Protein 1
Amino acid sequence: MPRNSLGRIIFDGNTPIREVIAALSAPLKKQDGLPGGIALIAGTGGNLAGIVTDGDLRRGLARGVSLDVPVSRIANRAPIVIPDAVPLRERAAYIRNTLLRKGSLKKYVEKMVVIDKSGAPMDVLTTYDIWQTADSRLKRVGVVGLGYVGLTLSLTLAELGFTVFGLEKNKKIAENIAAGAPHFHEDGLSELLKAQRGKNFTLVDDFEGSRSVDVYVIAVGTPLTKSGAPDAFALKEVARAIGRVIKRNDLVVLRSTVAVGTTRDVVVPILEKYSGLSAGSEFLVAFAPERTVEGKALQELRTLPQIVGGLNRASAEAAAGVFSFLTRSVVTLDSLEEAEMVKLINNTYRDVTFGFANEIALIAEKWGVRASKVIKAANFGYERSAVPLPSPGVGGYCLAKDPQIFSASARAKGYRTALLTAGRRVNTNMLSHIAHDALAFLAQRKIAPLSAQALIFGIAFKGFPKTSDMRGSPALEIANALRKSGVKNITAYDTAVPAEDIKRAGLSPARSWQSAVRDADVILCMNNNPDFASLGMKKVCVRRKKPLFIFDGWSVWDEQELPTLPLVVYRNL
């Protein structure tokens, strides 16, 4: 049924332009529910013969058209219309396909007329109206950066029915994905890639033409510079590329971890500069941080609450409309900055609490007390205490980096952090402490560093859930510390990390863990890969004929039996 108030903006084609301007200048009542700046031209039988917008009026006057000529002289006789029979959730796709068919996909269509089967106007909708009612899965999503964050999100969205285009600049990574072989270990990822590749997920080199998208997700890495400041180089590069192709009403979502204020102060100005469009009104911008744990990302994308903050309310609602398909719980915040801070809070909290546990370990060692034992006792049945267990450093791409990004965000407002910085320092010092103990053992046994054999179990930054990610790995930090002290023969064993990756890290992959244990002078277990617990370490160690130092950072081996072996010096936390 036509909107009752529609008659206020319908005119005969012979109506003078002057009268149409006067009518359009009159304020519309809120209850009318009609957008301003548009007049409908009625044809014979009440069908839609054309429309006149503010832009048509301005262009006509600029050409010198008299205000007394019929309005049909300046009308758009082939406007974009939507048949009323098209379901609400499919109207966005209908408009897109219509523009694509006409070869004018980049054309901005601000208002569209809904018509009945006879061609008579029934309603006028804005692009925002269309966006709000559209099924988000009909929007095409482009994900820039197909690392851990980007690839898992891309394939999850594809599995949910979205059409997803993924762009990755690293040629080796792109080749692996194209071949159906992810470049990192994640439970279920290989199977999901094979199922969605060429179906709902397509690898692309750009977002031009038929590869044009409606939603851009930026998932590139944001490392630190040598001075410890956030490096936004890749982020800026991606923003420039998106700015060159973005259309009106598109949505840009940042998924990368950034310093507070980066989206508004860095990314938005670049998008506006290269697109010539205004953020918030002509295109939308939101921040939705990734918070999954490596190894369980595909599961957590579907269960964790998604955090969304927008440049304005429309931006936040549009992003929430997409992420609501991932999980039932979407937390919509009031600003970009709030959403940016959430991710930094999550990871910094973990780093600080791990730092507290590791400092307990350092103190406990001085007193001959085992830290893990007393922490478990402190937590047992005491709901107000949830101290984590100590660990051989805190690794990973995010946990070691994000506290520094948070501290940089504080410095930007003139505040210098104390607790955040202290926690990071303790976690870094833990690695130096472990290396010192290993080197002290070699010195006591008069084993020259150059001839010493070191074996590291667990090269990935963590062992459970399993991952092949070596970014920010405590094991690699330990290896570097040993090298600087003259230990050159370092072998590594990790069931989740390919041998080629271990070689690229500058270490020798173990041919077998048994032979590596027999040859080693120092063994360092640096992650909690569950495969290590069942290796039968004692059976191999008991046959050894020379002294051995074992640091069991996660107590994965038999802490009752190994210390009893005569040639073994066993340490844990």
Protein 2
Amino acid sequence: MTGACPVAEILRTLGGKHGPRILHCLTEGELHFLELTRAIDGISRKVLTDQLKDFEEQGLILRSPKNDARQRVGYSLTAKGDALCGVFGQLYDWSQYYR
């Protein structure tokens, strides 16, 4: 077998332990940075910043600066990110079945 393993590529795309949690949070709709830090226990600002930047570069999320006094930034899933999140339900079902 030559080339990269597709499954390994997907796992690398998801990032570290917080990657799937970040994407899952965004399935509910656009969230701001502070909302994400509050929603994900134990994530540092640096880890969240790095992961969001990586997801944006991969085309999984959209970064939307807001024109308000607080200069907030919203994050939401792209169609590509939403499609990837669709797999999470299947992974959850598998994990529950083989627990």
Protein 3
Amino acid sequence: MSDTPARATPREIVAAFTEAMYTRDWDRARTFFGPDSVYWDVPTGPTVAARGPEDIIARATSVLDALVFYGNDHLRTVAAGDTVMTEHAEIWRFAGGEEIVLPCVSVQVVRDGVIAIWKDYWDLQALITKAPPSWVASLGRDRSWLYDATGVR
């Protein structure tokens, strides 16, 4: 369980998780998930998901470790009940100087103090066409985290 207060709201839990993600504090980020937590990028589908803290962070780092800068331009957050939706733009900078500003909407469902479901919505073509070809070619090399989340709601 995360180091956020025991009575933290879903919005507070997601805000603390977001801070851990964008500072690449992977040890802290993994504390926001339980063994049944699921994460996937909607453009790639639920069959390319990750489940549990270790695999969720392994999936994230398999994509993000190549970046020399990973930033977040937060626009707005809406929370209702156990669901938190955040509109933001991720800033990705690669060693060769390539920079991508990727508009995103993240949806997290918080249950029992952990993020049970995390889905990101963004434009796959925008990312693939602007990213360095070597990075694109490296995608999918490590799929040890692969989980089929079809039907997870």
Protein 4
Amino acid sequence: MKIKKIVTISIIAVCGYLLSPATPAVYGADKISFVIIFLGGPDTGAEGETIIRQFMGSLSKLSGMKKDSIQGKYFNNIADAKIYIQQNKNSYIMASIGFYLANRKSMNLSPLAVVQQQGNDREQYYCIVKKGAHTSLKQLKGKILAGNVLYEDKKFINTMIFDNKIDISNYFQLKPSNRPLSAIRKLAAGGYDAVLVNYREYYSLKNLDLFAKIQVIHESPKMPALGLMMIDTTANRAVKSKVVNAVTRMCGQPDTKEVCKTFAIDGFDTIDEETLSNEITKYESAR
């Protein structure tokens, strides 16, 4: 009788463990998330869902990872993205070098790939004005500065873009704007005094009539155009080679290159943290 009672208790205990709420969390803990942060990009509704669906489909096909083992989310602002990432630690993140530098330590980020844009793997930022309106940053003190780049970390903007020469929060009237092209049009019409854009945005202006109406009065030093990073977790390390191999091939495959066209990039090339050592030192040594 005593033995029978012990066996019965053991069975109940095992069943209780298997059916406990904690069990699904264990099974789902290694699900890999892919987070796309595209500041000033399409809305996060239907258009955003199309972007992430394209990306996840291409990734699954090229990596061999099962669709039910991965999940994706698209964001056009950093605040919402960070909330999602905090809840999904096994995340690969497509974001800027600004995001990486600002969150490298707190999120334990590892850089994986730079993006190729018009044959260039360097990022650069430009402060542009209406042609003839201003000739230097000194003339812009107290004026309106707009652009989606203003959603980036302020320390990154001050340190890496303006080389610690100004504090944008005190120097300008800041008007962050989701749509870069709309901001440029407003600049040309006299609604803004200056707009801050990145390399991709500046290059795209060269094909428009607007380009003849603007001029650059400040450009940042060049830096690696970091585009892919991961949170350094055991689960992420286990699939790192698959993910990196898939992403670096994605833009060259006829049936998956549409994803790259969405972001106006030509491809991805691998990178390691040592390549970013100068940028890391400069950012982290600044106040």
